[in-house]
Amino acid sequence: MKMVPLGDRVIVRLLEQEDKKKGGIIIPDTAKERPQEGEVVAVGKGRRTNSGDRIEPEVKTGDRVLFAKYAGNEIEIESTKYLVMKEDEILAIL
Amino acid sequence: MKMVPLGDRVIVRLLEQEDKKKGGIIIPDTAKERPQEGEVVAVGKGRRTNSGDRIEPEVKTGDRVLFAKYAGNEIEIESTKYLVMKEDEILAIL
Amino acid sequence: MKMVPLGDRVIVRLLEQEDKKKGGIIIPDTAKERPQEGEVVAVGKGRRTNSGDRIEPEVKTGDRVLFAKYAGNEIEIESTKYLVMKEDEILAIL
Amino acid sequence: MKMVPLGDRVIVRLLEQEDKKKGGIIIPDTAKERPQEGEVVAVGKGRRTNSGDRIEPEVKTGDRVLFAKYAGNEIEIESTKYLVMKEDEILAIL
Amino acid sequence: MKMVPLGDRVIVRLLEQEDKKKGGIIIPDTAKERPQEGEVVAVGKGRRTNSGDRIEPEVKTGDRVLFAKYAGNEIEIESTKYLVMKEDEILAIL
Amino acid sequence: MKMVPLGDRVIVRLLEQEDKKKGGIIIPDTAKERPQEGEVVAVGKGRRTNSGDRIEPEVKTGDRVLFAKYAGNEIEIESTKYLVMKEDEILAIL
Amino acid sequence: MKMVPLGDRVIVRLLEQEDKKKGGIIIPDTAKERPQEGEVVAVGKGRRTNSGDRIEPEVKTGDRVLFAKYAGNEIEIESTKYLVMKEDEILAIL
Questions:
Q1: Of B28, B87, B90, the CB nearest to C74
Q2: Which residue segment(s) compose the domain that G48 sits in?
């Protein structure tokens, strides 16, 4: 992907139901704020500290990640859904 | 568990009623926000300070912990319930 | 008590009416947010500064303390009520 | 007073109407949030900076002070009303 | 004035209509939050930085100042109205 | 202008419709929060950092600036409208 | 463009529908907060850290960027729509 997220943002491809079957994680419908799965496709340079230094991101392209349902801004490129989110909105690397 | 929580997050397996009998802690129904028990199954690398250093987490895998009722995001793997939460949402190690 | 509160949290045993008679402090019913008394039974390692250092707690086990009414999370162990709260929620040592 | 307020808290004895006559300050009834007068009876060790140092309190025991009406938590010891408040809630030393 | 405001607070004597005529500033009635004029009569020692140092106040006793309408706490001494406010609530020195 | 704005505040003379024709910027009526134009007539000494140092303002007297509609506090001197605002409320120098 | 945005602000020319066809990004109508595309036409000197240093902006004039729908303040110069926004409101460089 040629898009470059700014700062501590990452771009995540939303994983559809068929992709998730492999993983085995089931997110219960009863959970008030269901986490979702995705694949990291682009990573920003990282957050700037107050002294101007970069904090290196913890995720990398290709990581399969879990994130809260309403994380990020949704975009669509050639029929594929992506989310641009802050790295801190990612809960865990699967 | 192969999931790796990000930053200062931890993954906690929710303890069911039968597990809690051993411990002897009873959380009153009248409490407006009842704490819950769980077992830490994965720990992130820790929070980043403004200078970019990591603060080492205080809990470790295997710790039995107490946390506020609405802490974290609920997920389910092979019929077991887990919560992904910030370490600071953990009240105490039992 | 074998419970270890996290960070700047402390565990306080709620003092019942008969315990408070000794002390002589009366908290008026008219006060909009009545403080309560308790005894500190466990103290965390203390808050982490931005540089990662610990700030040593000001209270210690055995201290009799005053705290705001809705401070902390209530738990019950063998019929005794405890509160897990942030040290900063303690108003004063009696 | 043997009570020791925590951190940057102070304990203030609420001055009744007869005490205030001496001072000559009249707080208008029309003021939307009327300040009150009191006498400092106990002072905490002071606020902790991020580096863990104490900031020495500006008020001392015996100071007569002005504070916003809803400052602090009200307690009563042997029929006398006191307020436990943060030093920053004190507006001025009279 | 013998009152000493705490920290970065100042005490300002509210200027009445007749005083303001001299200055020539008219604050329109249509302004949603009309600024007011006053004279600084007492200045605190200044705000404490995180390292515990004082930041010297920018206003001094005798300065004629402009401040937002709902700034500060109103008090009255011998029929004169004063406001105890944070220095940052002062908009400008006239 | 003899008024001296405090800290990181500036005083801006509101530009009327006839003044703006020269510039050529049209702010659409449909914009939910229409920016406005003005001329900087006074600049404060700048914001204080936590270490007590001043951050030098970016605008100077005479600059023509764009700012958000509800920025600042409105005052009127000899039939001319001015706004006292924080420098950060200025969007751009024209 | 002769306008100079202040601090960490940038000015972005809003890309119309015909411009976006080239890029191939489709933002779904169903997204609750649809990102928009634009071209950076002016960049501020960057955010000031607490020590007064500038943090160099990550975008540069000419960059095609993605930003959240309600980012920035809208202005119009010679029938062209621009947005003045904080650099942090930019999600990604396309």
A1: B28
A2: 11-23+42-63
